[in-house]
Each structure stands twice: as structure tokens, then as C-alpha cells.
Amino acid sequence: MAEFLTTQATAYNIENIILHSKQKLVLISPYLQLSKNFFGRLNDADGRGIETVIVYGKDELKPNERTRLSKLKNLSLFFCENLHAKCYFNEDEMVITSMNMYEFSEKNNREMGVLIKRQDEPEIFKEAMREVQSIVKASIKEDRSYEFSQQPARTSVRDKIPTPTYNAGKPSFSNILKGTLSSILTGEKLDAYCIRCHDRIPIDSFHPLCDECYWVWAEYGNSDYSEHWCHYCGRESKTTKDKPLCSSCFNMVRNR
Ligand SMILES: [Zn+2]
Ligand SMILES: [Zn+2]
Questions:
Q1: How confident is the model at residue 166 (pLDDT cuts 50, 70, 90)?
Q2: Ligand 1 centroid – CA 53 distance (Å)
Q3: Cα of 13 to ligand 1 centre, how many Å?
Q4: In angstroms, rounded to a whole number, what is the distance separating the alpha carbons of residues 15 and 25?
Q5: What is the pTM (predicted TM-score) of this model?
Q6: Which pLDDT does position 164 carry in this prediction?
Q7: Which class in CATH covers the domain with range 3-185?
Q8: Which ligand is nearest to the CA of 250?
């Protein structure tokens, strides 16, 4: 069951989400102004190699915030102009709340929130993740080189970063994002294939469909419905949700 959170409990649980993140951390807050304490927690997480995604919106970052954030090596920063949602999560827990990140240490505001544990409510967790995915897709990724700029930020973020640029050969933005969010969901690497659409997904014979295909499959729920790809090797093969491996992968697994 989701847990209701008061102001204090919200702040406490957001802090815990940062403290207990294992690999990934996603923080969504329109107003981004970090208290010393909050930045300290982020800095510790960064030191532990936690990949952090921050999405903010509304106001442009102050130059000193930008400089501070630039010290976090594993941070990806996104700007979403019409962001109003506030949501904080790691692999296991999520807080959806009225509390902005800058209000974290402010105990005067009256806030509310809910704590959702992935283990208890995997469906709600997934739905919220899907919405986050959509928010990040609609956001602009900040170019890190701008963060080191000595110039005070005058133009809007949009003017400064017309389009994200990536070096050839690097994985595309949407793939990085998909990987980040999927591995938060699962805590695993994307080392297998969706048996319906061939997208990369985490290896799991019991869940051989990607999220999108899973929901289409679930409308009918037919485990013997014929699919196109082997979950393990990704080769073209007649598979089903119950039997997601091609014969050679199946034999390999069986003989292990
Ligand atoms: Zn799929
Ligand atoms: Zn195979």
C-alpha cells in the first residue's frame, strides 16, 4: 500500500531515496535550488557512482547552482519548460509530492506526498515511470560544457541549447534514456530482446516483452500467441511468451 506522507515525512523519504539508491536516481522538480544538505547528499551519491537524472523547469538555473551541479560527474540535467510535477525515485522507492527540491529543508510549508514501493505496487511504479519517461523525452538535455562557462547565464536555456548534439557512434539520447529508466525499473542491464518488437530489454524469461508490447499482449493474455524473436539471442524465431527462446538458446540454458 502507498504510504501517506506529511511535510517532514516527505523530506525524510526523499533523503532516504538519495541515500539508498543503488545505481540510479531520478529527481523531478520544477524549482531547483539545492540546500547545502541536499547538495551534500547528491554529492555523496555521485561519489558512489550513482547515475542521477534531474529534470527541472520554470526558472533558469542560477549561475552558482549551475557551477555546483557541474561538479557532479554522473549527473544528466534536463530542462522541461512546462514541468509542474514533483517526483523522486530510485530503483525501489518513489515519492510523488507537492514538495519542490528547494523546499526540502523548509519545514514551514505544508506539503503532502505519497511513498510508493516498487515491490508492493509494481504497476503504479511502472505507470509513474512511463510518465517520467514522457516528461524526459519532452525535455532538453543540458550540455555540460555550458555548466563550466564563466559567463553568467543571460539567455534562456532554450536559446543556449538549440538542439542536443551527440558525437557519431555514441548511443542516441533516447536510447540512453530508455536504458536509464528501464534499468531503474529492473535494476538490470538491457542484455536481451523483446520477443515481439526486438527492442533491447533486461534478460528475464518470465518477462520477455518490453513494456509497450506487454500491455498490448495483456489485453488478450494469450501465452501461446506466436511472436517473432528469441528473447536471449535476438535471432528471428517462432517464440511465445511462455517459450521465449529459440531452440539453440533453449538447449544451451537447459544444458547449463
Ligand atoms: Zn516490444
Ligand atoms: Zn536464441
A1: very low
A2: 24
A3: 34
A4: 11
A5: 0.62
A6: 34
A7: alpha beta
A8: 2
